[in-house]
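Re: the multi-chain job from yesterday

Posting the exact lines I submitted so nobody has to dig through the queue logs.
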Amino acid sequence: MSAAKLFVLGLGPGDPELMTVKAARILAAAPVVAFFAKRGRAGHARRIVDGQLREGAEELRFEYPFTTELSVENPRYLAEMGDFYDGCAVQLAARLQAGQDIALLCEGDPFLYGSAMYLFDRLSADYAADVVPGVTGMSGCWSRAGLPMTHGDDVLSILPATLDEARLLERLKSCDAAVVMKVGRHLPKISRVLREAGMFERAFYVERGTMEGEFITRLSAREDGPAPYFSMVLVPGRRGAR
Amino acid sequence: MSAAKLFVLGLGPGDPELMTVKAARILAAAPVVAFFAKRGRAGHARRIVDGQLREGAEELRFEYPFTTELSVENPRYLAEMGDFYDGCAVQLAARLQAGQDIALLCEGDPFLYGSAMYLFDRLSADYAADVVPGVTGMSGCWSRAGLPMTHGDDVLSILPATLDEARLLERLKSCDAAVVMKVGRHLPKISRVLREAGMFERAFYVERGTMEGEFITRLSAREDGPAPYFSMVLVPGRRGAR
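And the result, structure tokens for all chains:
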């Protein structure tokens, strides 16, 4: 085993000041910084750390082969994403073999729907790895919205909006508080299901929480059109409702 | 409205380095620092910030009138806790009225089962408040355990172990990944229910995650005796199972 270490760095919800002291320290010393980015974009995680890299650090930009062009249900999706992650892991392994520590950037918390998990899965058996937890996007959003989410015995569920309508409804009915992630084009479906579950009136919509261009509103006051990627719907438990 | 501000500071899961840069900055400047503590204890949140307070800062220690002596179901519990929080809010309001900013300390993230919510609820209508999100205890634990929790469409539920057995089972059956909080004396019940839900084999037990005395094991390898307060059970989604 090489002595070098893979640091999987949770960077928090977007505001650079919401990075942990530990992540900032590791970042400032890392000779190699790796991150994911969508085609044609700078990369959200990379933007959070602007101006905080060590001088001369090597940057590895991993560009997703596709984002929403191909549906997750398409068998090509899993296969091509698998190849993509394999290729990324090979590049990281080469640096670790050469004795270089790596900071692998991840918005939010790495182990909550983070792409970095797929590289951790491929490398952690052969190389030392340290996962640095981060403030999740949802914590950033509910703090900014002033929504205490769970009191006492409340159950909180985190639900990807990509679930079909029946499953989403069933899941919502068995929790007191909910976070709906990956909102995008699913907003009309989310609103319908929340109405059915009796949660619509206390739901909030948060776009770009803690970041420039932040927008927070009651879901009932928002138009039903599509939402950008960095948006989520928050349903506080009954005691946290405003 | 007074110009002073109530900062509700999430301090993260226990390791002081997992505090955010923002929380550390606010803490170092705060003339008043308030925190909860159990009877006869220093206070967990207070311990996280040892050595990081501004010189001469006033410390307000709010000691819970009881912790586990009185059951949550006892009507006296809600009434007495309500009186307790009212009294804390009065003390904070006096400082805010006098123009002093306050750092109200909170382990983990303030709006996820945090006691600070009860003071935020009482003060945020009359005083400026800024809630600084923190790394949750669960993020700290699953990072240390090396458990990627949610992939793709996985639903994650956060469940207080205080729920009765039937409800706990019902909730577990409608999620892919789960975090069971407030474990304490409920460990035997949790194990039974996880077996029934087919989740026992991939469950982990984490005690004092990110802190001194940290202990991590497969749940199946742990004795069934009672667990300390800072412990939780983590069930990764199927793709994160080890």
